[in-house]
Write a structure and sequence with these properties.
Blueprint lengths: L15 E4 L3 E2 L13 E4 L7 E5 L5 E9 L22 E9 L7 E5 L14 H4 L2 E11 L1 E9 L25 H5 E4 L1 E6 L2
Antiparallel strand pairs: 1-4, 2-3, 3-10, 4-9, 5-8, 5-11, 6-7, 6-9
């Protein structure tokens, strides 16, 4: 018999999510789907955060999964267009846990600087799909916070320099202010220990 671990960071289990300044459609990060994503706009990428409060309350977990997959931008109900882009997906992050309903947090995981690698000429889907991390030891809490360190533009060395001699069209992705103030997160999953 196949037994799957329960994703306690799921809206279907009553979990809630909120983001700090610039957060857009944060609920999409806990909808169990790589077809949607949450985003941040108008603030520096580094330091943007998403906090998920578990609907199941205090729980012990030993595995997390994160996705940076992008998809074609669609118009959203607010009348705007989604933020999408191959270089805007999350690249590196820290995870923190709370045992007091989100009042205080302790870091339990720091991703590699290239958790979602991307190389010239652009980030591609196989590098951005859901990635799973088994934690070195189980963690207990009732909320989790993801703190973003970079997107594929701000953290990707392959995109952080002038790549050709055409000075009228800079190719260092950081020269476009949008790439420094927008980031997307597709999915954050937290799996209960067996």
């Amino acid at each position: 018999m196949l037994s799957l671990q329960q994703n306690v960071a799921s809206a279907f289990l009553g979990s809630g999510v909120r983001g700090n300044a610039g957060a857009l459609r944060a609920g999409r990060v806990i909808d169990d789907s790589e077809a949607t994503n949450a985003a941040f706009d108008g603030q520096p990428v580094k330091g943007r955060s998403l906090t998920v409060t578990f609907g199941v309350g205090m729980t012990t977990f030993d595995k997390i999964a994160v996705s940076s997959l992008h998809h074609p931008a669609e118009e959203v109900s607010e009348g705007a267009t989604e933020i999408e882009g191959r270089l805007l997906g999350i690249r590196a992050f820290d995870l923190q846990v709370s045992q007091d309903g989100g009042k205080t947090f302790t870091t339990f995981y720091r991703s590699a600087d290239d958790f979602f690698p991307a190389y010239r000429p652009r980030a591609v889907a196989p590098d951005l799909l859901l990635r799973t991390v088994r934690l070195a030891k189980p963690v207990t809490g009732d909320a989790i916070r993801m703190i973003i360190r970079s997107n594929n533009c701000t953290g990707g060395k392959d995109f952080n320099y002038e790549q050709e001699k055409d000075l009228s069209a800079p190719s260092d992705c950081r020269s476009d202010a949008v790439n420094n103030t927008q980031v997307t997160v597709t999915e954050l999953q937290v799996f209960r220990s067996r």
